[in-house]
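Hi support team,

I'm filing this because I wasn't sure whether my run with flavin-adenine dinucleotide finished correctly. The job status page said complete, but I'd like someone to confirm that the output block is well-formed before I use it downstream. Pasting the exact inputs I used:
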Amino acid sequence: MKILVCISNVPDTTSKINFTADSKAFDKNGVQFVINPWDEYALTRAIELKEAKGGTVTVLNVGEADAEPNIRKALAIGADDAIRVNANPTDAFFVAQQITAVAKENNYDMILMGKESIDYNGSQVHSMVGEMLGIPSVVPAFKLDMVDDSTARLEREIEGGKEVVEVKLPFVASAQQPMSEPRIPNMRGIMTARTKPLAVREPVSAEAKAEYVNYSKPEKKGGVKMIDPENAGELITLLRNEAKVL
Amino acid sequence: MSVLVFVEGLNGEIKKSSLEAATYGSQVAQQLGTTTTAVAIGDVQESALAGLGAQGVSKVLYDSDSRLNQFVADAYVKVIAKAVEQENATVLVFSNSNIGAAVGAKLAVRLNGSLATNVTSLPKTDGGSFTVTRGVFSGKAFADVALTSDLKIVAIKKNSIDITSGEGTATVESISADLTDADFAATPKETVMQDTNGGVLLPEAEIVVSGGRGLKGPENWHLIEDLAKELGAATACSKPVSDMDWRPHHEHVGQTGITVSPNLYIAVGISGAIQHLAGVNSSKVIVVINKDPEAPFFKAADYGIVGDAFEVVPKLIEAAKALDK
Ligand SMILES: Cc1cc2nc3c(=O)[nH]c(=O)nc-3n(C[C@H](O)[C@H](O)[C@H](O)COP(=O)(O)OP(=O)(O)OC[C@H]3O[C@@H](n4cnc5c(N)ncnc54)[C@H](O)[C@@H]3O)c2cc1C
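And here is everything the job wrote out:
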C-alpha cells in the first residue's frame, strides 16, 4: 500500500503569535516550528498501517527549506521518503493544487493529512484535494482500518455523533484524535532519517484565491473579577445581572 | 446575483449554527441589494424550512431524497452546485461545521470560487471588494482575507453572529440534481449519535461547563454534569482528561480538540495552558474556578474563584437551582 501523508510546518503550540510592524505578515522571529499536531495523527496511523500490511509512507510538505528539520523528523518517526514542494504557500487552494500534482504522478492508495493546521485553521485542503483528484474524502476521521486490500473503514466525526464509512481505495482522509498515538523519534530513527530520500521539486503553476491583507490580535480582557469562595453563589447572580449570560 | 445559504438539519429541525448562517446570508444580501435563498438537504421538516423567513430568507430549495438523510459529501456538492447555478449565486454561505467546511472546499474547486472558513465578520464590500475577517492561529489572532473569485464562499464560525428573527415565511421549492451511484461511494454505513447531556451539542452550545485534571477522576464528573444541567449547558474537558479516558474525546476542547466560542465558558480545575486557551479564548465570558491563585487561566478570565472545586461547585449548583428560569 502506498500512502501519502501531507504535513505542514506550524508554530509550536506554546508560541505567542506576533505580526510584522505593518500587520501584513506573521513574524517568525523567535518562533519554534513543529509538525502540525493533527498531521502527526495521520502520520503515525500511516506508519502503523505500513507496519501491519506492508507498503510505503511518503511525506509531503509544501514549504520552504526551513521546514526540512520537521520533514526529517517525520522520516525519523518512520516515513520512507519525503517530497518538499519548494514554495511559500499563499492559501489552501495553492497547497491543494501542489498536493494534487504530486498525487497524480504517483497513484497513492490513500492520502492522509490533519484535520486542520493550527496556524491557518482552514479545514479545506483535504476536501479540495479529493475534489481535484475525483476521489472520496472522509473528513474529519478519528479511526482508520483496512477491511481488505481494497477497502478502508473510517469513523468520522459529525456534530453530535459519529459515522462509519467504508470506502474503496484510493481516498483522502483527514485525521484527528484519537486516530493514533503520536510517536517520538528514537535514536535509530533519527540516524536512518538522514539517509532517507528527500526530493525537492518546484511548484506547478497555481493560483491563490484568497489574499491575506491584514492581521490583528484579539482585544485584551479587562481583568478578572474575583469572588470569595465562601459566597460562590454570588457568581451566578453576577453572571445573570452583570454579565447577562444566564 | 443572489446569496445562497446552505442549512443543515438535525432531527428535523434546523441547526442553530445554520440559523446563524441564514442571518449572515441575509445581512450580506442586504449589503449587496439582493435576495437570500437557502438550500436544504435531507432530514428537515418543511415547516422548519419555511420558518427561515424569520432570518430573512425568501426562498428555500429543498432536496428530500432520503439517501441524503446522511451526509455524503459528493452528493451534497452536486445539489448545492445546482442551486448555485439556478439562483445565479455570487455568495455562498455555510456554517463552519464539519459538513460546511468539507462541502465548501469541494465547491470552491468545482465552481472556481474562493473560500474563507472560520469567518467571524460580515464582509467589507466597498468598491466591489469582498473582505472578511477569519480566526487564525487557533484563536490567537484574526486575519482579513480578500476573496477574489466571482463566487465567494464563506463558512461562518459558530456563535459569531446573533440570530435575527423577523416576520416572514420562506417559500419552499424542490430541487434535485442528477445523482448517480458514484456520488454515493462514501455513504455512511452507520450513524451513531452521542448522548448529548440534555440535547446541547458542544460546538453549538451557548454555555459550556468544562472540567480538568483538578476534578481528580471520572467519578467526580457529576459536579460538572449537574452544574451544566442547571444552566442548560454542554459539558467539555481538557485534553489530559480525555487522554485518560475520564471523558470521551469529543468533549476535549482546545487547540487539538474542539474550538468553542460560547457566551459563557466555566472552567473548573483547568490550569489554562496555552493550548487549552487557544480553543476557548473567543468565549464571550470566561469563569475560572481553581484552587491555585497562580493558575494561568485567571489571566484570561472575566470572573474567578480561588477555591476547591469540591466545595465551590456544589454552591454554584445550589445558586443555579435557585435562579428563576
Ligand atoms: C501539541 C499539544 C496540543 C495540546 N492540545 C490541547 C488541547 O487541545 N486542549 C487542552 O486542554 N490541552 C491541550 N494540550 C495540553 C495542555 O498543554 C495542558 O497539559 C492541559 O490543558 C492541562 O490540562 P488541565 O488543566 O486539566 O490539567 P493540569 O495542568 O493538571 O491542571 C489541573 C488544574 O487543576 C487545579 N486543581 C487541582 N485540584 C483542584 C481542586 N480540587 N479544585 C480546583 N482546582 C484544582 C490545579 O491547580 C491545576 O491548575 C496540548 C499539549 C500539546 C503539547
